[in-house]
Amino acid sequence: MTETLTFGWEEWVALPDLGLPALKVKVDTGARTSALHAFDIETFGPATRPKVRFTIHPIPGRDDLIIPCSAPIIDRRDVTSSNGEAEPRYVISTPMKVGNESWDIEITLTNRANMASRMLLGRQALKDHIQIVATDRFCQPELSYDVYHSTKVRKSAPNRALRIAVLSRENNYSTRRLVEEGEERGHSVEVIDTTRCYMAINQLAPEVHYDGKRLPRYDAVIPRIGASITPYGTAVIRQFETIGTYCLNGSAGITASRDKLHAHQVLASQKIGMPTTAFAASPKDTSNLIGLVGQAPLIVKLLESTQGKGVVLAETKKAAESVIDAFRGLRANFLVQQFVKESAGEDIRCLVIAGKVVASMKRTGAEGDFRSNLHRGGSATSVRITKEERDTALRAARAFNLGLAGVDLLRSDTGPKVLEVNSSPGLEGIEKASNKNITGLLYDSIEARARPAPVRRRKLPAKSIQPPTT
After folding, report:
1. I need a surface site. Which of 51, 173, 418, 448 has the fewest CB within 10 A?
2. Structure-derived torsion over alpha carbons of residues 411, 412, 414, 417, reported in degrees to the nearest 10
3. pLDDT score for 358
4. In percent, how much of the chain has pLDDT > 90?
5. How does the average pLDDT of the chain come out, rounded?
6. What span, in angstroms and rounded, lies between the C-alpha atoms of 375 and 309?
């Protein structure tokens, strides 16, 4: 036989799936539908399975404590308030816990900022074995708002769906995997063509627009910026950073890593091993430029080369001079670099996610090609790296403050040398070579960083008034 529960006109309840371990609710049998205080209400996800995100101040009078929530939408209905006004509201279903009992209830979302209680419990949510004593309060076990200050409670907050933007112009393996893995985890992942974004830049409400509409609030942005649009792409990322959106890779790190001269200067400033590199603008300095790097063979490389394009091996000094003259004739920016013979056309790609090397592969160039890029016909196999190589890769990714980086190393007689730090590394080669779900590991890091959690706004102290000086 089910035990009868007694409710007063005010009780403590918990909505654990929403991350709300303690709420004072007003019990109102005159209202059919329950209502929860919510603001910043925003829908997301596919039309067939829409979800809603919202935030709540669970403690009346404490607007500094903000709890982000998300849930599937089960309905949208008009609700008439006590003053006779009809309001369209989203309806969600979630378990409600009272004492040792728990059952699912339907809740509508509305702004109750002016109400004394953050939640109204209507008769639809009351079970048959609940009796109401309208003159009493707190007939059920009392809870405390102190739980919102508990580290344990914050860490055990439910996994909430994220809204994620992938900035990409290509429908390639990496983009498809990012969408596929994110949706499998219950997130909403949207692919945004970077060049179709435009920005409203002002000090009060900076915005990013796309195809005639303002883009919504994203929990995270995953940049996949092509080399040809680096300046515009990083400008879009800066705009998201201004808004306060978490970006997996920041604009400054992408900009620095894309310019090979800038990248090598960053590496040198951190005393990270790399091939000896030289750069000059004047054609009069060609001989000295070559001398700074050493004897032929030498590498001549365009500053913004990608996938092995614009990288030339000069077997002799004369050949190097000819390539340099040709690049200067094209008004191209380039650098001259030491050729590490002992690497024998192989390099090591270390994939770094959130300060950890999660996978590594050895890339070998196609027959007769000193470049090991997979896009140029190279092959890849999983490889075990040394502690020195791991530390070098981590330091290189950290130097550019990248949450995701492909660090390319050469094995030399004097230790690992960083060739390049790639801020948009491809996922196909490394996933196949390592047989790991690299995209899943990437989402683990995004969820740990961008997962909505209780936020406390810092209250600024009142300015002290200094007595006038005499």
Report:
1. 448
2. -60
3. 97
4. 44
5. 85
6. 10
Neighbours of 151 (CB within 10 A): 7
CA-nearest of 44, 13, 42, 47 to 27 is: 13
Cα angle 288-294-296, degrees, rounded to a multiple of 5? 105
Question: What confidence score (pLDDT) does residue 310 get?
Answer: 75
Q: Could you tell me the pLDDT band of residue 208, with boundaries at 50, 70 and 90?
A: very high
For residues 200 and 163, is the Cβ–Cβ distance under 8 A? no
Beta strands 34-37; 404-412: pairing state: unpaired
Q: CB–CB of 37/115 below 8 Å?
A: yes
Q: Report CA torsion sign: 177, 178, 180, 185.
A: positive
296 CA to centre of own chain:
44
pLDDT at 355: 95
For residues 399-415, b (16+ Cβ closer than 10 Å) or e, as one string?
A: bbebbbbbbbbbbeeee
Q: What is the pLDDT of residue 392?
A: 97
pLDDT at position 308 is: 56
pLDDT tens readout for residues 100-121: 899 999 999 998 887 878 899 9
Which pairs count as long-range contacts for 369-374, CB under 8 Å and 24+ apart, including other chains?
A: 369/345, 370/313, 370/339, 370/345, 371/308, 371/311, 371/345, 372/345, 372/346, 372/347, 373/307, 373/308, 374/426, 374/429
- 411 vs 305 pLDDT, higher one: 411
DSSP 174: H
Which letter does DSSP use for residue 284 in this model? G
Report the candidate in 159, 406, 120 with the shortest Cα–Cα distance to residue 263: 406
Whether 63 shows a pLDDT value over 60: the answer reads yes
371-402 tens-digit pLDDT: 555 555 567 899 999 999 999 999 999 999 99
Percent of the chain at pLDDT > 70 equals 86
Secondary structure (DSSP) of 369-432:
-S---GGGT-EEEE-PPPHHHHHHHHHHHHHTTBSEEEEEEEEETTEEEEEEEESS--SHHHHH
Q: How many CB atoms lie within 10 A of CB 286?
A: 17
- At a CB cut-off of 8 Å and minimum separation 6, what does 219 contact? 162, 163, 164, 245, 246, 450, 451, 452
Helical H segments across 191-331, by residue range: 230-243, 251-258, 260-269, 286-293, 317-329
- Domains of the chain in start order, with CATH, are 5-155 (2.40.70.10), 163-247 (3.40.50.20), 276-339 (3.30.1490.20), 343-449 (3.30.470.20)
The pair of structure tokens assigned to 19 is 């991350």
The tokens describing 58, both together, are: 């669970």
CA neighbours within 13 Å on the CB side: how many for 233? 26
**DSSP H/E element including 27:** strand 20-27
